[in-house]
């Protein structure tokens, strides 16, 4: 409950909740993990993180977070649970993604039906100042809430010309597995017909942000760019040519960022 919580919830007292569990997948993006934990620390009780033995593209990889979990124990004692998943070499791309998102469910099962689960990707982060409105909307409609995010690419001041369908929040009784919660009945694209949503963005999708090696490794690892040259993708991002970098999806523009205090202080 809120009285026994060991960290600042910053949630109005009239919101009836038990636990808030944030769930996502992990590859090797430790800087983004640091940001994600620091921001969501203001309203999340537990994080459940799944890392697999292979990337989406099927490349074998170590359990990076499992091997480095000790670095987080002092700041977040007993609040991070890591789930590992062994994949075969033929389990790649959408099959791999589905298995990974579904693989979080056994860990989620330990919580009550009324606990709130957030599921998305590591670089999809809810704005703590918007969280009460998300819960209010969930309570009013008794269904999952889809979170629209502002999208930034390669740099924190490179804002995309479109927003992003990001994380989904729901009480545990409202979904079967995180995969169905996040993507609905559509394996390839996100189907959010089972959700309600706020009109304004409620967080950020900070994608393709990191060191040169992280950007190239993402190019090798993810579904949409694994067959492209990682060096060419990196060079396109350095030119701020996001259309060439990610298959002609959208442009970005440089803006003066005005992130909330919880973000600026990370």
Features of the shown structure:
alpha/beta, single chain, 9-stranded mixed sheet, disordered N terminus, 266 residues, 29% helix
TL;DR of this structure?
Helix content is 29%, strand content 22%. With 266 residues, the protein is α/β, with parallel strands linked by helices. Strands 1, 2, 3, 4, 5, 6, 8, 9 and 10 form a nine-stranded mixed beta sheet that branches. A two-stranded antiparallel ribbon has the order 7-11.
Mean pLDDT over all positions: 90
Number of strands: 11
Order of helices and strands: EHEHHEHHEEHEEEHEEHHHEH
End-to-end CA span: 26 Å
Give the class from helix and strand content and strand pairing: alpha/beta
Number of helices: 11
Evaluate the radius of gyration: 18 Å
Quaternary state of this entry equals single chain
Measured by DSSP, the beta-strand proportion falls in: 15-25%
Principal-axis shape: globular
What topology does this entry show?
Elements: E1 20-25, H1 30-40, E2 46-52, H2 64-68, H3 70-73, E3 80-85, H4 93-102, H5 105-108, E4 116-119, E5 124-126, H6 131-141, E6 144-153, E7 158-160, E8 164-171, H7 178-183, E9 195-197, E10 203-207, H8 212-221, H9 230-238, H10 242-245, E11 252-254, H11 261-264
Parallel strand pairs: 1-2, 1-4, 2-3, 6-9, 6-10
Antiparallel strand pairs: 4-8, 5-10, 6-8, 7-11
Helix pairs in contact: 8-9
Describe the structure.
By secondary structure, the chain is of the alpha/beta class. Helix content is 29%, strand content 22%. The chain has helices spanning 30-40, 64-68, 70-73, 93-102, 105-108, 131-141, 178-183, 212-221, 230-238, 242-245, 261-264; strands spanning 20-25, 46-52, 80-85, 116-119, 124-126, 144-153, 158-160, 164-171, 195-197, 203-207, 252-254. Strands 1, 2, 3, 4, 5, 6, 8, 9 and 10 form a 9-stranded mixed β-sheet that branches. Helix 8 (212-221) crosses helix 9. It is globular and about 45 Å long.
